[in-house]
């Protein structure tokens, strides 16, 4: 079987476009890649409008079946005339885009999904949203990215209370305790603040591979997010952390920022920090792409993963950290309903509020998202700190429960079984190509 795959960004472009619209689809595609390679020959395509039909027809002429997986939202999916096309997309709103705008029929996702033989999303919440529009028997599967096996190896290192450890970062990293936050006040951020960040970024480039080292200890909370994405609700995350730990130097919040532009990604956070006055807790901002071993060391020093979003399609960072045995501080809604429990996380309540589909330039009020309870978030921080510092047995139980829940949600076995169901529905059998020349030729295709 030939598995054609595409996303807007690939390994060559993601580093300079981190945080751009639909950037996260590359990480989902990357996570699925090893699993797909066990089931067939994976062929990346860069121009699906011109490549998919040709490659599929060529495969058929040699007796090979093919499937096209489009790791894109439905409005970005090119539907092949000859190859079964399966959009693989995330969704976290309570209604499906079901009307066109801007003279583009594909903006109506129901129009696209009715034209494909099957679809894949990443949560039962999204499956239910799709089926409310397209019918209860619409062929859509909830298949999360297979994150468990890649991250569970770090579960034995889970500790609530962190003895001093060194965190090594080769990129741009800013420690709240060593930066002059007055540079980022309302009257100075656009001038002095911008210049300070540009200077720091230039120093990172000039030092080459020489890393920065930070000693981390106490209770460490880590969040990975794109600050430009308002759905991530990082303002509440940061404000609640400072409110909970203003006078506590043993609490650290690490903000791993996924955005390619340091000025755009970091300055808003520093501007917000400048408004909170003096505080003894620590905020460490890590910007951009970092090496895998550095990311692994970030997991090692983390006590809790933090999420305060208004909705999630699946939330890869939370899945990574919880697979590694890190309990979470998080709301319980959208995709988190599939793997977050009160046994493995400190959960704050949330309520519905009106909003619009994120790719709709009209900003028409068409759906709902979730607003978290701020006071409960503050209490979750305080309660989790107490557990990490004074109740290691409860922390250990929560850690084990987090890893176990993610095993049930996104292990290789779970993902493989559901992918096989999709392929069976399409009438193709997952297997390696029968023709050695296919592997030789395709091995030269750039990823």
Keywords for this structure?
alpha/beta; 38% helix; Rossmann fold; eight-stranded mixed sheet; 14 helices; disordered C terminus; 2 domains; four-stranded parallel sheet; 447 residues; globular
Fraction of residues in β-strands: 15-25%
CATH topology of the largest domain: the name is: Rossmann fold
Highest CATH level, the class of the largest domain: Alpha Beta
Provide the residue-averaged pLDDT: 92
Describe this structure in words.
The protein has 447 residues and is α/β, with parallel strands linked by helices. The protein folds into two domains: 177 residues, Rossmann fold; 262 residues, Glycogen Phosphorylase B (Rossmann fold, 3-Layer(aba) Sandwich), CATH 3.40.50.2000. 38% of the residues lie in helices and 19% in strands. It contains 14 helices and 16 strands. The strands form four sheets. Strands 7, 8, 9, 10, 11, 12, 13 and 14 form an eight-stranded mixed β-sheet that branches. Strands 2-1-3-4 form a four-stranded parallel β-sheet, sandwiched between helices. Helix 12 runs parallel beside helix 13. The protein starts with a strand and ends in a 5-residue tail after the last helix. The C terminus is likely disordered.
Describe the structure in brief.
With 447 residues, the chain is of the alpha/beta class. The protein has helices at 24-39, 48-61, 109-113, 124-134, 148-151, 189-206, 234-245, 262-274, 292-300, 316-323, 374-390, 392-410, 412-426, 436-442; strands at 2-7, 41-44, 66-71, 85-87, 119-121, 140-142, 162-169, 172-175, 212-225, 251-257, 282-287, 304-306, 328-331, 345-348, 350-355, 367-372.
């Amino acid at each position: 079987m030939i598995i054609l795959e595409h996303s807007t960004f690939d390994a060559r472009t993601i580093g300079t476009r981190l945080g751009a619209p639909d950037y996260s689809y590359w990480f989902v595609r990357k996570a699925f890649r090893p699993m797909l390679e066990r089931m067939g020959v994976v062929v990346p395509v860069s121009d699906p409008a011109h490549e998919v039909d040709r490659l599929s027809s060529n495969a058929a002429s040699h007796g090979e079946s093919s499937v096209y997986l489009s790791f894109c939202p439905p409005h970005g999916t090119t539907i092949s005339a000859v190859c079964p096309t399966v959009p693989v997309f995330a969704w976290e709103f309570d209604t499906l885009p079901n009307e066109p705008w801007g003279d583009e029929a594909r903006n109506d996702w129901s129009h696209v999904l009715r034209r494909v033989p099957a679809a894949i999303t990443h949560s039962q919440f999204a499956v239910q949203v799709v089926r409310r529009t397209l019918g209860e028997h619409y062929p859509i599967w909830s298949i999360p990215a297979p994150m468990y096996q890649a991250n569970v190896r770090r579960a034995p290192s889970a500790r609530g209370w962190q003895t001093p450890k060194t965190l090594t970062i080769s990129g741009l990293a800013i420690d709240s305790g060593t930066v002059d936050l007055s540079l980022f006040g309302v009257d100075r951020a656009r001038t002095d603040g911008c210049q300070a960040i540009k200077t720091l970024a230039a120093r990172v480039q000039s030092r080459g591979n020489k890393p920065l080292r930070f000693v981390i200890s106490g209770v460490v909370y880590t969040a990975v997010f794109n600050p430009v994405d308002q759905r991530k609700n990082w303002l509440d995350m940061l404000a609640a952390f400072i409110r909970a730990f203003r006078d506590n130097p043993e609490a650290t919040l690490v903000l791993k920022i996924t955005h390619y532009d340091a000025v755009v990604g970091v300055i808003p956070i520093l501007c917000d920090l400048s408004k909170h006055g003096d505080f003894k807790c620590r905020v460490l901002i890590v910007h951009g792409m970092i090496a895998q071993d550095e990311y692994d060391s970030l997991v090692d020093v983390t006590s809790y993963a933090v999420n305060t979003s208004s909705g999630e399609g699946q939330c890869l960072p939370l899945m990574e950290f919880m697979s590694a045995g890190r309990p979470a501080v998080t709301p319980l809604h959208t995709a988190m309903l599939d793997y977050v429990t009160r046994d493995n996380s400190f959960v704050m309540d949330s309520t519905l509020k009106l909003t619009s589909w994120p790719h709709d330039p009209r900003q028409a009020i068409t759906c709902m998202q979730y607003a978290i309870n701020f006071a409960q978030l503050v209490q979750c921080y305080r309660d989790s700190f107490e557990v990490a510092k004074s109740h290691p047995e409860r922390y250990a139980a929560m850690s084990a429960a987090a890893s176990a829940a993610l095993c049930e949600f996104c292990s290789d076995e779970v993902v493989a079984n559901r992918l096989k169901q999709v392929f069976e529905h399409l009438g193709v059998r997952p297997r390696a190509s029968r023709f050695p020349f296919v592997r030789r030729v395709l091995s030269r295709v750039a990823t």
